[in-house]
Specification:
Number of helices: 11
Distance between the termini: 10 Å
Shape: globular
Radius of gyration: 22 Å
Helix content: 25-40%
Largest sheet: 8 strands, mixed
Length: 442
Amino acid sequence: MPPTPPRQPLNPDYERRSFWQATMPAQPDRAGRALPDSADVVVVGGGYAGITAARELASRGVAVTLLEAHTLGWGASTRNGGIVHAGYKWSAPQLIKRYGVETGSALYADTLASYELVKRLIAEQAIECDFREVGHLELAYAASHVGELEHARDGLATVGVASHMLPRERIREEIGTDAYHGALVVEGSGLLHPGRYFAGLAAAADHAGADLHEGVRARSIRRQGDGRFVVETTRGAIHARDVFVATNGYTDGVVPSLRRRVMGIGSFIIASEPLPEDLARDLSPRGRSFFDTKNFLYYWHVSADRRMIFGGRASFLPTSIDKTARILWRGLLEVHPQLADYRIEYAWGGNVGFTFDRMPHVGRTRDGITYALGCCGTGVALMTDLGTRVGAWLAGGEAPALTKLPFPLVPAPYEGRPWFLPIVGEWYRLQDRLATRSRRAP
């Protein structure tokens, strides 16, 4: 193998904030507004799921009040990688094996519908968010992973999703790197600007008549003898017929039974300065998005304004934006050494909501509190869809298919601080190191 070129140092003058937040439209100030004494439904959490549920409920004539502890979209909704695709962590055949033909098939049908919903909302609400339907590649980090991608291709075919394998010698047709052993090309996915997309969803909820509040934290939720809920907040109490908790990777102790079932796992991203057109074409000839098959995976694409957006699960240890930016910079140069002379302009991170069974969950607690949590890294489409479905459910419609699944506890002494993640992370890192044994060129 040729000698590894020396790594260029990361420029230190990047902004420590989300590129999407920095470049999204200015939002109305929704802090300090008077809270109502009561509502039909109170939504806790102002991300994709919360804002789409509020829009759906309001459009059906339901009086809905949404509470967000920070600003709307503050969490993963404006910090993610901007990649929109269907699917869960489990394939369609795996879902059928785990949950049976009827439930497994319904679950996968729902996730395909979630991607179509994003497209439909963008069109119907005229959301200007740089959406482009370009497809994506899953890249084999090790030679042993090629078979896994072939199996994934066969699984997608069972549910009518078009995909095909690309051998190593043809990788350059799709991506400007020689770092991978093959790829699965999937056509049914897209890219967007998450901040602009969220701003469009918030405007749609406003237009529908939803009552949106920022800077209001829900402290507790209890059910009264008459069946109604009391939501105690930092600015007073609200009575409601129903409460929907949509806090995902930022779930706190407002509903203790939910905090014991969802983990916030850090994911981190860097964004480069705008790149020359010829370099952008070399990196991504067809403008697609990319994932690799490592446990500590990378995910990336070239944005509409020709920036490299490069993210990953950089660390399961307590960390900082500066540390993770350096880790991602090293990873970026391993994949795309042609970027060594270009600056990074933004670095940021946020929490992804993970569950023990790596499935999202929708349902009601024993007290009757409704929830949708645990997108496990596929939140743009999935949480948009689940929020919309829960809104329809609370307005009298059908329950989502996910309500049929039990929601397991995290099997450890766990009350919101995932102390065991560094141990899990080291195990995954070891598996990635072992996989590197097959990365040598044949």
